[in-house]
Specification:
Length: about 800
């Protein structure tokens, strides 16, 4: 009972610290509950959509004229295959909407059939009760396709083939779990069976008249592994490709595991970022509690000594601190967990537009409870350890008022000057009690480090240097030449159009760099992965070894090579449409392609597997990027329809891509939370300093200092504290930020993250922390107005 009374009295006396710990633990508990729950809900929701639609473990896209009954039977007879489903599809040369957009993805058009079982409602907050059948001339779009191209219900979609075009009215957006996300390059619109069969028959007839039209007809093959198959989806796909020929002819092979990974990768990365933030915030809470407990022991030395003289031993005094802080933490934890419930329900809506699948699920109770209990248990141990300082209190010395207080005691004796009275006095106050400000310095350094790290990461979206270092290309313009099959005539046509494009560009500016490349899917050692084929070595960002020089050399993605155990000099088989040849690994490279699962070769190597191969993509980095817009319009107007032209949005206009918006949102949230933490921490530190220096403040006022002078001293003192924290935090960022981000973003295929330390990357975090410390200290120091000179007589 006596301990309970003392704990209650302590809380009333120090309610500021009590409330601050509640706020800090509220933020941590809210974040932990949200992160743990959503990391489970995102992949499970996509997985459930797969299961509900009975989609196989592997999805293949194969041209109809390449797929034979022998291939299908070969797969059906494979020991670990349970079911094979083949569905007809048609693929247009280009597609476009009446808003002028289109062509962002490759598309395979399917009949509605039973693959569409969920239709988004009008406000895109959920699903309709049923999916109405389509009438002739109507189309359902996967939500990712509609979101990327800004399409709404009622807009019109045109599918263009070489000799025909078909127009449909968008009736709605549907869930498509295989590749409905904006992060997948292939999309599947759905039309009614009557329209599909009519177009399909017309394309078959067109193919009979001209063989190039055979590329309009595709098959989508779903392969389900046997129930007793213990192989992972990727191992299953690799084994199947090695034992059968179907993978060699497929345009693409997508496993269920990879599909779920690609579609949930962006929210997963964001949640990982905030998970690291929560760890850092937890460290800050421990630092704050340590400082608060140490200050309480120092400031209440006499009271604690009296309690010792009354028979309270060290253990019971430590329990007082434990009860006070643990009660605050438990309250904050419970409030945060409850507040997380609506966040978990509504936050996924921000991602559903890009994922294309409705995210279901509530709180992931067991892991959340275990993590929060672990934080509380660790905190309890920490409190008991820190409060061990009460064991050094001498009851006799405390009761006799023998607590020592020496002002301006420091080896650093900077003079106090009249011209710079407030700053010089603030600095002497800091140097005389620097131990009291260690916690504030540590917190400032942690905030600067994390803010600088996250700013460097989010700024990478718009940083050309960073993108290039991570394997991206930095073109201002890109020209794509469309054709069906590789042939001498098409190769000559591509050379002609590329030459014409470069002539037009050089009329305006010089070409700084050119990236002449093509991405295709080959079988590498039995696994279907992306191959970047380039005529220019500059296209590859090589981290070890060198780019391929000869027609039997390849570079392999660094992360993929590490996962598979490949080394430079290894010889691997590469297959394409029945042809197989061994290639030697000449080096490792990095690129933002399929999360780092890629390899690359030069054009000469590709021509040993594909007759008359020539790349279709030409990217140009201009010497004068300001000319991008003019050149773009000229190329669009003068090049044939088979030539598509794109420009880099950041060259002459604001980038409004989903990735950019997401990066800016992450930065904003992190800065807001950091500001809240800075406010709470500085408020606690200032309150402690105010109570400790109340007599000093009265003395200063008696000497003529105004409340404004004293508030400015407080603010300047904490600005000095922030300065030392900024130095430490900046050093930490320069030393370990890139390594930490490389590890954190590895799942995206980033093996080596490079921060482009620009003005905003460095000075925005510094300014944010410095201003937070200064402004919040100035606001809290407003209490000096309540201190009167006559309080000195009372003291």
């Amino acid at each position: 009972m006596d301990l309970r009374t003392l704990i209650k009295a302590n809380i009333r006396y120090k309610k500021g610290s009590f409330k601050s710990i509640i706020i800090l633990m509220f933020i941590i508990s809210l974040s932990v509950t949200t992160i743990v729950s959503l990391k489970k809900n995102f992949p499970e929701s996509i997985q459930n959509a797969y299961d509900r639609q009975d989609v196989g473990n592997i999805t293949l896209n194969i041209r109809k004229d390449f797929l034979t009954e022998e291939m299908i039977n070969e797969v059906r007879e494979y020991p670990t295959v349970k079911k094979v489903e083949v569905i007809d599809a048609i693929t247009p040369d280009i597609y476009k909407f009446d808003n002028g957009r289109g062509g962002s993805f490759a598309i395979r058009v399917m009949a509605m059939m039973d693959k569409v079982d969920r239709l988004w409602n009008s406000d895109l907050s959920g699903y309709e009760a049923e999916v109405p059948p389509l009438s002739s001339g109507e189309v359902y779009l996967p939500r990712g396709l509609a979101e990327q191209d800004g399409v709404k219900v009622g807009d019109r979609l045109t599918l263009e083939f070489k000799d025909a075009s078909y127009t449909f009215t968008v009736k709605g957006m549907v869930e498509e779990p295989v590749c409905g996300s904006v992060y997948m390059n292939l999309k599947t619109p759905f039309i009614c069976s009557e329209d599909f069969e009519r177009i399909r028959e017309e394309r078959i007839e067109a193919a009979k008249k001209d063989a190039v039209n055979a590329a309009d007809l595709y098959e989508i093959v779903y392969i389900t592994k046997a129930d007793d198959c213990e192989l992972s989806d990727n191992r299953f796909a690799s084994a199947l490709s090695k034992e059968t020929s179907i993978g060699s002819y497929a345009h693409g092979v997508l496993t269920r595991t990879d599909s779920i990974h690609y579609q949930s990768i962006m929210p997963d990365i964001i949640l990982n970022i905030f998970a690291i933030f929560v760890i850092i915030l937890s460290v800050i809470v421990f630092v704050v509690m340590s400082n608060s407990i140490s200050s309480s022991i120092e400031m209440n030395y006499t009271d604690l000594g009296i309690l010792k003289a009354m028979g309270y031993d060290e253990r019971r005094l430590r329990y007082i601190f434990l009860g006070q802080y643990m009660l605050a933490e438990v309250i904050g934890t419970l409030l945060g967990a409850v507040a997380a419930i609506p966040v978990i329900l509504y936050l996924p809506r921000a991602f559903e537009s890009s994922i294309g699948t409705k995210i279901f699920g509530g709180v992931n109770v067991l892991p959340t409870v275990l993590i929060l209990l672990g934080i509380l248990l660790l905190s309890a141990v920490f409190i008991l350890l820190v409060s061990g300082k009460v064991g050094h209190i001498s009851p006799i010395r405390a009761v006799s008022g023998g607590r020592s207080e020496v002002y301006f005691d420091s080896r650093i004796r900077v003079p106090i000057t009249g011209k710079l009275l407030s700053p010089s006095l603030a600095f002497r106050q800091f140097t005389s009690g620097k131990r009291r400000y260690i916690a504030s310095i540590v917190i400032a350094s942690i905030l600067v480090f994390f803010l600088m790290t996250m700013t460097g990461m989010t700024d990478a979206v718009s940083s050309e240097n960073t993108q290039r270092a991570m394997g991206g290309t930095s073109e201002n313009l890109e020209v794509y030449i469309d054709f069906d099959e590789y042939s001498p005539e098409n190769a000559e046509y591509v050379k002609e159009q590329i030459g014409r494009s470069e002539e037009i560009i050089r009329e305006y500016t010089d070409i700084g760099e050119r990236y002449f490349f093509n991405d295709k899917y080959f079988l590498l050692d039995g696994e279907k992965i992306n191959c970047r084929i380039s005529e220019d070595e500059e296209t590859f960002t090589v981290t070890e070894g060198r780019a391929p020089k000869y027609d039997n050399e390849i570079v392999v993605g660094q992360i993929y090579a590490e996962d598979m155990g490949y080394r430079i000099g290894d010889k691997l088989p590469v297959s394409y449409r029945g042809r197989t040849r061994d290639f030697i690994i000449s080096g490792f490279a990095v690129a933002l392609i399929d999360t780092g699962r890629f390899f690359g070769m030069n054009g000469a190597g590709a021509r040993t597997l594909i007759d008359d191969f020539i790349p279709r993509n030409a990217g140009y980095k201009l010497t004068d990027p300001e000319k991008t817009g003019e050149i773009y319009e000229r190329l669009k107007s003068e090049l044939p329809e088979k030539c598509s032209v794109w420009k880099n949005a950041s060259a002459d206009e604001e980038d409004d891509s989903i990735l950019t918006k997401t990066a800016m949102a992450i930065k904003a949230v992190i800065y807001v939370i950091s500001a809240v933490f800075a406010l709470v921490v500085v408020s606690m530190m200032c309150s402690k300093a105010f109570v400790r220096e109340k007599i000093d403040i009265g003395i200063y006022k008696s000497m003529g200092f105004t409340s404004g002078n004293l508030r400015l001293q407080f603010a300047v003192r904490f600005l000095i504290v922030a300065f030392f924290g900024i130095l430490i935090g900046t050093t930490m960022s320069l030393t370990i930020s890139e390594k930490m981000l490389s590890l954190m973003l590895r799942s995206m295929g980033i093996a080596r993250f490079v921060i482009d330390y620009r003005f905003s990357t460095v000075f925005l975090p510094i300014l944010a922390v410095a201003l937070s410390y200064f402004i919040f200290a100035y606001l809290v120091a407003g209490k000096t107005k309540k201190v009167e000179v006559r309080s000195l007589i009372t003291e």
